[in-house]
């Protein structure tokens, strides 16, 4: 019986290796499907406009929430000022995260070459 289990080990190892390889291919396919499609030739101008729009949007949304809070509570202009500051902080954080993501993408592309 021991000889029989030894004979099955190489086959079972090969089967496991095949299953792992198939699983690896599925994982790579899923990662590619979830990855955002980015233009490899994106110009600095396009990236700058993207940063500016994210930053401006965060400030506008923060200010709008602050303005709404002011009108509900009656604390004009404090809610607006706090909302603008929170929007500024959120916009800055978003830009830093976007820049770090681009940096990681560039490092990954350089490392694969």
SSE layout and pairings?
Blueprint (H helix, E strand, L loop, with lengths): L1 H33 L9 H30 L4 H35 L1
Helix pairs in contact: 2-3
Short description:
By secondary structure, the protein is an all-alpha fold.
Describe what you observe in this structure.
The chain is mostly helical and 113 residues long. The chain folds into 2 domains: 1-32; 45-113, no CATH class. It is 87% helix and 0% strand. It is built from 3 helices and no strands. The chain has helices spanning 2-34, 44-73, 78-112. Helix 2 runs antiparallel to helix 3 (78-112). The chain starts with a helix and ends with a helix.
Assembly level: single chain
**Total discrete domains:** 2
Uncertain parts: none
Rg is 26 Å
Give the number of helices: 3
Tertiary shape: elongated
**Helical/strand content category:** mainly alpha
Strand residues, percent: under 5%
| Approximate helicity band | over 70%
The beta-strand count equals 0
Major pleated sheet = none
Mean pLDDT: 83
Which H/E pattern describes the elements? HHH
